[in-house]
Automatic annotation (TrEMBL):
InterPro entries per the UniProt record, alphabetical: Epimerase_deHydtase (IPR001509), NAD(P)-bd_dom_sf (IPR036291), NAD(P)-dependent_oxidoreduct (IPR051783)
Name the UniProt record assigns to this protein: NADH-flavin reductase
GO molecular function: aldehyde dehydrogenase (NAD+) activity
Alphabetical list of Gene3D superfamilies matching this protein: NAD(P)-binding Rossmann-like Domain (3.40.50.720)
Organism: Dermatophilus congolensis
NAD-dependent epimerase/dehydratase domain sequence ranges: 11-191
Annotated Gene Ontology cellular component terms: cytoplasm
């Protein structure tokens, strides 16, 4: 199939603002779009015109999934591994292989010829730094690596073109869905003093992710893994934008490891009991992620996929405001920082 002849695309698992904007962009580009959501998510709050909505679970029989994907040319596979299925112990990799195998076989039977997998930049980080042993300590990272490896393997066997986008932290506003960042980050920045470790991470915007997916559907190569980033920010730089958006004036202070470690373990375990950050070893999150600068070089990916740089600070600001139901102002100056563009 010529890349330019894709006419019907299914989005499996894409939720929140990303899923909405991706469907919107696909429709605008002339695609017939099927948005496939897990049954547990219920009905769509704000259906988008031109999108057909279907409910199916990745644990359903292949025949059920095939029926939903009938006539689809390309599939955006955004199921992930942390909010469905087991991600603790040795079950995570086997669960991922089962789900990927079932879904991809069903997709091939339905006529799908191309799959874009929404993966994690932690797989790229592990690939670039195997000596750190991140995958050994965190089932989530192992599962993400297995997801990409097996997706490419099965795609090769079934004659489908499969590429993987390895995404970092994503910010954007207007999703109308539960705000992931409010629970994990924003609520923890509202005290009289903000204590946070000294690491950092790569970041992109929701729109950049959408643009990268759209481009991958057109020019993604089989078995390619594309790390996506726009800016590398320290936690202090990211937090300064959030606090400015929320009108917070609390000082931001680094915290010694011996103070941070027990607090971090306690917070991570509490979040995991509520379904967040599953598959990460609470005892190693501080050293492996929060005190590390996880910056992945994606210069070549951006040049190939042609998503535009810029907009990260404004996206962080907008999501911070939207998370608390505050009006999103027109673009305005944000705190200056030395974030590095990738």
């Amino acid at each position: 199939m010529c890349h330019d002849l894709i006419v019907k695309t299914a989005v499996l698992g894409g939720k929140g603002l990303f899923g909405h904007r991706l469907c919107e962009s696909l429709v605008a580009a002339g695609h017939e779009v099927v948005s496939v959501r897990p049954r547990r998510q219920g009905s769509v709050a704000s259906p988008y015109r031109g999108v057909t909505y279907s409910a199916v679970d990745v644990t359903d029989d292949e025949a059920v999934i095939t029926q939903v994907l009938h006539g689809v040319d390309a599939l955006v596979y955004g199921v992930g591994v942390s909010d469905v299925g087991p991600v603790e112990g040795g079950d995570a990799v086997e669960w991922v292989r089962d789900v990927v195998g079932r879904t991809f076989r069903a997709a091939a039977a339905a006529g799908v010829e191309q799959v874009v997998v929404i993966g994690s930049y932690l797989a790229a980080w592990e690939r670039a730094n195997p000596g750190l042993g991140i995958a050994d300590r965190h089932p989530y990272v192992r599962a993400r690596i297995a997801e990409a490896d097996f997706a490419i393997e099965v795609g090769t066997e079934l004659g489908m073109r499969v590429c993987v986008l390895e995404i970092p932290y994503v910010f954007g506003a207007g999703s109308g869905e539960r705000h992931h960042w409010r629970e994990i980050l924003l609520d923890r920045l509202r005290g009289p003093v903000v204590l946070f470790p000294t690491g950092g991470t790569s970041v992109i915007t929701t729109q950049q992710l959408v643009d990268a997916v759209m481009s991958a559907l057109q020019r993604g190569e089989h078995a390619a893994r594309y790390p996506l980033t726009d800016m590398d920010l320290t936690w202090r730089e990211m937090i300064s934008v959030v606090m400015d958006a929320l009108g917070q004036r609390s000082p931001i202070m680094g915290v010694p490891r011996w103070v941070a470690q027990p607090i971090c373990v306690r917070v991570i375990r509490r979040l995991q009991r509520h379904g967040q950050l599953r598959g990460l070893s609470a005892e190693h999150v501080l050293d492996d992620f929060l005190c590390s600068h996880i910056y992945v070089d994606a210069t070549w990916s951006r040049e190939l996929l042609r998503y535009r740089p810029g907009g990260v600070p404004q996206a962080i600001r907008d999501e911070s405001l939207d998370a608390y139901g505050l009006p999103i102002e027109s673009p305005r100056p944000v705190p200056q920082f030395a974030g590095r563009r990738r």
